[in-house]
Write a structure and sequence with these properties.
alpha/beta; Rossmann fold; 2 domains; six-stranded mixed beta sheet; four-stranded antiparallel beta sheet
Length: 265
Amino acid sequence: MPVPATLGRGIRLDHVSFSYPGTSRVVLDDVSLTLPAGAVVAIVGENGAGKTTLVKLLTKMYEPSSGSITIDDTPLARVRADEWRARLAGAFQDFFRFEFRARQTIGLGDVPRLGDDVAVVGAVDRAGAGDVVARLPLGLETQLGPTWPGGAELSFGQWQKLALARGFMREEPLLLILDEPTAALDAETEHALFERYAAAARGGGVNGNGRITVLVSHRFSTVRMADLIVVLDGSRLVEVGTHEELMARRQQYAELYGIQAAAYR
């Protein structure tokens, strides 16, 4: 089935469970959830709660062991993986350091526009990576990586910002996933970047396509800006709501938020 051109209602998970192939341990257990079109959704939980696994199912890297995922009325299981992924964008904590010229390292995020200077510069701006490019000897023409004679050596944080830019090459994805992509950056920088992404998402994009932005972050100062916060614990969905709603319930989210806030005092 074809991928919808836009999102009208969103993405729905209906009683989704998942175990990795060859294992019996349930990593996600009976998760039912709606990610509304146009929303910024944060996924939180302690290590091993299933956050990244949920992301892998949304990106169709794996199929649910049971249950279903639908995009508006289209079952994700009936959509070709390559066609769905062509409508995705994002950045992850684990990324590859492509030792090409900076322009190509970023442009790989949307191969058909690899040589599109306007697209590359726009991606750099959206990722807040202009400071990295400005420090490169030849800007976007700089050869990256110590493997090459004279190749520029970058810090982990600089590589991460270029990976972010690569993830922003697609300007109008249906689903934008940011899974701990700024772990090497300080909390203030991460907050400013995510605030920019959230504002763009709520603006509906150039074509008003109903883009859903999914944030996975261990920093609750960033998470609180989301329209909807999803709390996972021990493979199960335990809470869903806005920051204010979850704080008022005084359950797991409020406890985790309080612990982290106390550490910053």
